[in-house]
Specification:
about 15% strand, Rossmann fold, alpha/beta, seven-stranded parallel sheet
């Protein structure tokens, strides 16, 4: 792939930075299509001079997307949101309509490969708007670009994640943490580096085209078990309080009005369904990737939440 050009949409995000870094190591030229070019400049040192180029792009504008994929041999769409925001960036606009626009541009540019990042739980019949929009995006992409490869990760963890970091920050200030629905929802956390490796594998393997892979880690945990693991890692004891779904929905009705909502009704709906790899699905193993356990990675980036931070390990 060393003589190729890859356009990555959403390359400055959590998963994106790892994808860009790994692509750069293979020698490809990477165009990073983002809303804010200045916020993506931290990616440039991951490659040689001129190898990584942030490009200003509005994914809701077809002409802007077409410019971003011009000359690209492959396209990766990592764009996603956890809650609707202003300026027309709702679930359908970002996960469905923009995905179609990117697929159409990739096809018109004669890109040989397209990778669409979706999510485990994508379902056209789901009660969750997030899950429905992800399913609609998958359908749109496959309609326009049948050879596209779709990756559906479970909850993704790593140093910049919005899951463990978020709850560890809460644990630093609050004596209790909520267990929505009693904390029984199952997850199969997947390491961000493994997801990035999966992107590279499917880009370099023509046999992966047109397939769907569900990406999960080697272990399944309940939400409660993940909270217990996080607390043990940061050395803090906190009360875990079960919150029935009904009460959580009432709380989310208020919280989702905040500019950056800590919880929305749609997220509560998602928690009513387990987030694990489906039986019979293609997985990381089919890509030759051995999934990394949470226990191996979590301690490496949770130190700042311990009393004493990094130096707490040396305390008597």
């Amino acid at each position: 792939m060393s003589d190729k050009v890859v356009t990555v949409f959403g390359g400055s995000g959590f998963i994106g930075r790892y994808v860009v870094q790994r692509l750069a190591k293979t020698g490809v030229r990477v165009n990073v299509a983002v809303r804010h070019v200045e916020r993506a400049k931290f990616l440039k040192p991951m490659g040689n001079v001129g190898q990584i180029t942030p490009i200003s792009c509005d994914i809701t504008d077809a002409e802007s997307v077409a410019r971003a994929v011009q000359g690209a041999d492959a396209v990766v769409n990592l764009v996603g949101i956890l809650y609707p925001s202003g300026h027309g960036h709702g679930f359908d606009a970002v996960h469905h309509q923009a995905a179609r626009t990117i697929a159409e541009a990739a096809k018109a540019a004669d890109a040989r490969a397209l990778v669409q990042i979706s999510a485990i739980g994508a379902d056209a019949e789901s009660d969750s708007a997030y899950a429905r929009s992800k399913a609609a995006g998958e359908a749109a992409v496959r309609e326009v670009f049948p050879e596209a490869t779709i990756l559906r990760p479970s909850i993704v963890f790593g140093p910049e994640d919005g899951f463990f970091n978020r709850f560890a920050a809460m644990a630093r200030l609050s004596p209790a943490l909520p267990l929505i629905g009693g904390g029984h929802t199952l997850f199969q956390p997947v390491y961000v580096g493994d997801v990035a490796d999966a992107v590279l594998r499917v880009l370099s393997d023509p046999k992966a085209q047109g397939k769907i892979y569900e990406l999960g880690g080697p272990k399944t945990y309940s939400f409660k078990a993940l909270m217990e693991l996080m607390l043990a890692t940061i050395g803090r004891s906190r009360l875990l309080v079960p919150v029935p779904f009904g009460i959580a929905e009432l709380q989310a009705s208020v919280l989702q009005l905040l500019p950056v909502p800590p919880l929305t009704r749609d997220q509560v709906t998602l928690l009513k369904r387990d987030n694990v790899v489906s039986e019979g699905a293609l997985t990381l193993a089919d890509l030759g990737i051995e999934p990394t356990t949470v226990e191996v990675i979590l301690p490496a980036y949770m130190e700042r939440f311990r009393r004493g931070g990094h130096y707490s390990r040396y305390a008597a």
